[in-house]
Fold each of these.
Amino acid sequence: MSSGSTGKQQRHGYAFATQPPSGVSAAVLEWVAECARLTMPDRVVWLDGSLDERQALFSLGESEGIFVQLNQKKWPGCWYHRSNSNDVARTEHLTFICTPSQDTAGPTNNWMDDKLAYAKLRGLFAGSMKGRTMFVIPFVMGPLGSPLAKVGVELTDSPYVAANMGIMTRMGLQAWQQLGPAGTEFTRCLHSIGDVNPERRYICHFPFDNTIWSFGSGYGGNALLGKKCLALRIASFLGKQQNWMAEHMLLMGIESPSKEKTYVAAAFPSACGKTNFAMLIPPEKYKRAGWKITTLGDDIVWMWVDKESGRLHAINPETGYFGVVPGTNSKSNPNALEACRSNTIFTNVGLVKLSDGTFDVWWEDSDWPAPEKCINWEGKEWTPAIAKETGMKAAHPNSRFTAPMENNPVLDPAARDPKGVPVNAIVFGGRRSKTIPLVYQAFNWVHGVYVGATIGSETTAAATGQQGVVRRDPMAMLPFIGYNIRDYLGHWFRMRKLMSDCPRVFMVNWFRKNDAGKFLWPGFGENMRVLKWIVDRCHGRAYARETTVGWMPRPEDIDIEGIDVTLADIRELETVSTDEIKQEILLQEELFLKIAGELPKEMIFQRELLITRL
Ligand code: SAT
Ligand code: MN
């Protein structure tokens, strides 16, 4: 296959580069050679990130049966992929932080001795790419030239992973330029799908070596190593050492009628609507008045203290959205749907064969009617009748779209700005039917860290296990903190000292219910009304009264004109019951006990202060 001396490999008229481009650093060449000796691919292909190359990756995948091209009229540039049915979500129990001492990983991570982990995974990787191609993927996380932009190189035997990385990261030759010919500082990401056997699946992070080894899964968070593995676990570890922060947050801009811009970073545990919030459509009344919401990111932010202003600045290290498909429609999130219209990969949704032989996709709660039949995420025939009878789903509940952020109609232009944006507010949230009010502001940064660290969220039907149980998820980062949670919380507290002006910190809860079990707040676009109070607080305009939990709006401070919410509802939404907060403090013990003996003292002081206020 290889045409040897020209350094190119033909594939449907496209020639993949089989030799490294000039200027690749010696450290990269050496590491790629070492990994190739271990995994023994038939050929090594050096990707350059061009669009022609992406096309060729899809064609290659099509010939291997892993990609199906969709109807190009309805879905220009879009492809369909179905994964192994045992490989449809992140596998936290198979995810490890690998360091010499367990104390580095702490009580909330799975830990493996690093030498042991290397030995174990070397056994799995040995010869795992025989008969396959190893793709070398150079990528940059963060806008080029940003003080935080980081170079990674992923080696993978999956064209699906390569194509996804092209959407989710700044993949291409610019990564070699940023690294430089003598560069050694890059995240070494080695990935093989192996035989996709859950018994032989490991996602291992070696923070001291800036290295990730992932074996046996092709699923997003396990296999697109720039995402959760690099941009959260490894990055959080680096951030602790280098005085910056990697957080599981969306990032949005809010423009007021007077063109004043406010930037909000927000952390919500899964199933709380992070992507929807990041692309929120303001209510008509607000639109008409000139309010605009723009998206910078929907999943990850990196933040550092800008030397000049002393303020926290943020970038989104990614360039795409890896979003949940079911439930996405023109009502729930028109901007996300629009982002999926072209150059998007759909994974594990229903595949519909049209009368002209081309393919369409379908998922539960999409805008268009259910097909007479389709192939579901498991590769089985699905019909509405079968669905009715057996509950079979066309799309897996965690089926995903990989869409370029450039497709988002409300993309904030600053998403490409290396200087990032100044963060005015950090918002934490959770899904709570009781106890937590609609919105409150923490008294100060340190109190805000306590509020974020004690986020609780109720489990939903989307996850296995009991429903409605409150799980603690500090900063929505529990599965993504790449080191000891004690040091992570300490880092949050310490960041305050580096800032001369720090963001205001808020807690929100869109999910509070009344005694009859009915949601008290409409949510979705109407969350704009709460955002407005937050924006006004950031600029010193809105009124707030002091309560036991923090600063809260009076009922009349939340705009309810034009929605089916009364002042009495707001009063109920903003009720803080001493008994319930006492109960909440007891519930927090679950987390506090887990970190027992290691809790930063600020956490204990904040809890004591809260008890005193009660
Ligand atoms: O972990 S993924 O990146 O695959 C999806 C998510 O949980 O955000
Ligand atoms: Mn996420």
Amino acid sequence: MTHQEKAVMFLRQGYHCSQAVFGAFAEDFGLDQSAAFKISAYFGSGMRWGGSCGCMTGALLVLGMAMGFYDTQDRDLEEYGNRKTSEFIRRFTEQMHGEIECRGVEKDTLGPQGTGREEDLQRCHRAVSAVVDILEDMMAQFQAERACRCENLDTHSIIRRANELRQFQYKVNTLLCTSSKQVAFIQFDIRQFKIINDLYGEKFGDQILDFVVCRLEGLCRKEQLFANLRSDVFMVVMEFGEREEITAFIQRLDEQVRLFQNVQLQMSYGVYIVQDRYMEQRQMEDRAAMARKAAKQNVLTNIAFYKEQFKESLYNRKFIEENMDKALAERQIKMYLQPKYSIKQNRIVGAEALVRWLHPSRGMIYPDQFIPIVEENGLIQKIDYYIWEEACQFLSRCKAAGITTCPVSVNMSRNHLRDSSCIQVLTEMIERNGITKQMLELEITETAGGQIRKKAMQLKKEGFTLLMDDFGSGYSSLNILLETPFDVIKLDKKFMENIVSSQKGLLILEQVVSMANKLEMGLLAEGVETKEQVDLLRGIGCDQVQGYYYAAPMPQDEFYHILIKQYGATA
Ligand code: C2E
Ligand code: CA
Ligand code: CA
């Protein structure tokens, strides 16, 4: 029977529209029909009480089950889900010509012995049929998107995956309720998995994930439960007697997953030992996740056990996530400018725009504290646009004062590599502020993969000047340099530490200078703090510098006054 036929049958049998919709898909989720009716009955009534058609709740339940909103930390999925909900409501409203309220429907139309008005029943039939059509279409679309991401690999269907996670959760719950031993949550992921994906391709990345699952299958006993929560994040829940059993398990696992087809894999393991079995499972998972993140930052070991302090960093994250929109709206976000100097000329030749958050009670918050978080939740885009606009306005102010030869560079987060509108946004900002593309430069951090190359080509074609930020801090910088049309190399701060401490560091830098010259690229050294560094740089022919030795980042007004003084211009 098709979903459509099932839904009509249930409706005829007198079930609520919410039950008819959810019931029609119950089998897909391995749900017992009567359980499905029970679940949807309450949701449907609740919705109708508020006035909206119960079909909508039924449909949203189906979407939720199909897309498996299991992991609170998966923000992409959450965003995707929100978009899908809006899409569903829009399409349903359109198909029903705006008639999505049930207030007019007689109450006893609904329910197993419904005896309502014919016109109400017809409306319900129309609504249910529309909903089932939309759902089938959206689920097919969802499957196609997933399949496209995973190409030909034997990936599980969405529904099966959501079921697996539910079953995992159920088994964990049973273990927590029945085990007489202690229980540990071990969450782990693969360090730099995104980079591996970029370098070797997503297909290879997926093979790695299958390989880890295979190894877990071989290693875990019956009472050691595991699941692949999302992407490269895995969870093992196990009972244990002594704490050493946990580390021994992790070591055994680590030995087995360390190497895949000549590629070294490094895992980060976070462990949470359950103290209160009545705590929500999600909270237990969150704690294991916090420990995993702590393990990631530790260079000495790749295992971390949860500590109460970790919660503090979670609170910080929450604070940033919850307050950033307000900070932007209330202009607590400020653009600071750090001058770039020419050693030879001993004068300012440009500046870099750097974001600061001046919070009314917390004071100055530096980008390192919030950029990694907003890069994860996508808010970085708004922040970058904000700073770019500030930089354009600043340049427009300089132009009005007759200064057009002091370009300002802005940072472009790696998130923009996938943002198709950023070039248009930049162009509009430049035009609106009456400045030129030569005045606003773009700093992009070296990353792997084709994305940077593609975006850089497009930007270059549009006439922008591109600076490769943090050169030498990542990997395969040379390849990217050869394949991507950057204009200027910004040497990472680490170079400055090395040139004074080792002869080898200086030698490498000399080669970079000569390479930049041969490639006819500009070169700028960042993090210059001492006279000794300035002298060494002068000696090897690197003229442009940025660093505390000359000036720290400063509020834009302060920089403006310094510029005016240097150029002798009038504001
Ligand atoms: P970055 O682009 O490498 O920026 C240079 C950082 O080095 C700045 O830190 C700057 O204050 C610091 N610095 C400058 N001179 C010296 C020095 O002599 N010694 C040392 N040790 N450090 C120096 P800041 O402002 O805290 O920014 C940190 C990072 O945050 C930036 O690194 C950049 O990756 C990111 N960031 C800052 N503003 C933005 C922004 O508007 N958008 C985006 N996407 N990222 C930003
Ligand atoms: Ca930068
Ligand atoms: Ca940098």
